[in-house]
Each structure stands twice: as C-alpha cells, then as structure tokens.
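pipeline stage [seq->struct] | target=ABC transporter | organism=Aurantimonas manganoxydans | residues=251
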Amino acid sequence: MTGPLLDIRNLRKAFGALHVTDDVSFQVMPGELHAIIGPNGAGKTTLIHQLSGSLASDGGSVHFAGEDITRVDMAGRVHRGLARSFQITSILDGFTVLENAAMAVQARSGSSFRFFASAARETALNDAAMAALARVRLDDRAERRAGSLSHGEKRQLEIAIALATGARLLLLDEPLAGTGHEESAVLVALMAELKTTHTIVLIEHDMDAVFALADRVSVLVYGRLIATGTAEEVRVHPEVRTAYLGEEEAA
Ligand SMILES: Nc1ncnc2c1ncn2[C@@H]1O[C@H](COP(=O)(O)OP(=O)(O)OP(=O)(O)O)[C@@H](O)[C@H]1O
C-alpha cells in the first residue's frame, strides 16, 4: 500500500459554540508513528474519540486503508484493524491478565472460533492472547489478577488488549499519564518496539517521549492543527513555539 493508512480530511466537531475539532486534516502513513501534541483542552482526546468511532463527527471524513469509514461505528473500525488502547477503567480487575487479553481476541474473531471444540477454542484464544501479552512483556504476569498489576503494567495491558483485537493501527491516548520514571521508560521502549510492526497515532504530553518516538508530530491548538512535520521541524516552527512551547522558550 502506497497511500496513507489513515486519511483525515476537514474533520469537525463542536460542543455548542465551542469548535473542539476545527477543520482538521492530516495523514498517517503505513508504519508511521504520528504524535499529536497540544496544550490542555486543545481537543486531542475529542479527536481520538472521533478517530476510534466513539464520537460522531459534525463534518469531514476519515478514510482507513483507502475505505471511507466516516460513518462506521467503533466495532466496525476495530474489525477493520483500527483500535484505541482501551482505558484502564475497561480492564476487568477480577479477571486474570490472560483472560482480559483473551476477551479482546474473542471480540476480534467473533464467531470464527465456533467450529473448534471448546478445549481447542480455549487453546487458540489463549495462544493469541499470550502472543499479545508477550509483545508488551506481560506474559510472565498472565495468571495474575489484572487488579493486582501496577499502574504501568495496566497501561501495558491496555496496549495488549488493543493488539489482541488484531489492530494494524493503534490509537494510544496518553499511555504515559500517571506513570513513574521507570514505568515510563518501559512503555517508551515498548512503543519503540511496537513501531516496527504497527502504525501508531500517539497522544502524549511527555515531550521527551514524543520527540524520541515520533516520525512526525502534529500540533493542535484550540481545535486547529497549526503544524505537522518532523520533531525538528515542529520544534523550530514559530507558531508552535509561541502558541504551545511557551514564549520563554521561543525567546
Ligand atoms: N462532551 C463535551 N461537551 C462539552 N464540551 C466538551 C466535551 N468534551 C470536551 N469538551 C471541551 O472540549 C475541549 C477539548 O477537550 P479535550 O478533552 O478533547 O482536550 P484535550 O486536548 O484532550 O485536553 P487534555 O490534554 O487536558 O486531556 C475542552 O474545552 C473541553 O472542555
């Protein structure tokens, strides 16, 4: 595939008079890690909701792998290979780490395991779930209750759940939020490794992580994309420096 994997054109969303997504257009190429940064309230989370399909847009279009998915719901987008890392709140604490991942595999496969006898079905589900856990280095925690994981491990499990849905493109919404220094180093290394096989849209406040990981960065301010470019291009962009990084840094 030579075109963009994700093609966002003139996307809009308003809450009353507030234009939270204001004519946003950008493309994510296959294999790219595209970060979206912006100050608090810039509209990053709203944009991720629009991309994942959990929030309908007022206008514009979203194409995935060449297909117009603007009106496809969240389940349909997951089925096509576009998944948001599920929030910690959606992790089922009372179930094991493996069971949490296996449920995501089952959601992806729908009825495709129905021809297996139940024991074989369980093995197939668990093998796929274990592969996702190994990618995020949680395979040694598989039998632990999800509720007993540390905060950083729960963020790893969120990513495993998105992987277990069979996603080609991962939407990661602030994976480093609330993590300590060591946890965040583990997650950054994990994302660097995931980049080799997956296209990623990353929303993140940690600029060191963004500049280390991103192939390109888009900067959102008051719902408008004011710049898209490499980390270096964005870092020296005059409008970005004043609007986002702060006057003192621009001086
Ligand atoms: N459902 C809603 N109804 C009304 N206003 C909303 C709604 N959701 C978000 N907003 C407003 O839209 C703006 C953008 O919010 P959003 O959460 O998308 O920003 P953000 O860039 O993700 O912020 P942060 O970095 O703080 O998470 C904010 O002013 C917010 O108050």
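stage status: PASS
auto-comment: The chain has two domains: 1-81+169-251, 91-167. The longest helix spans residues 118-135.
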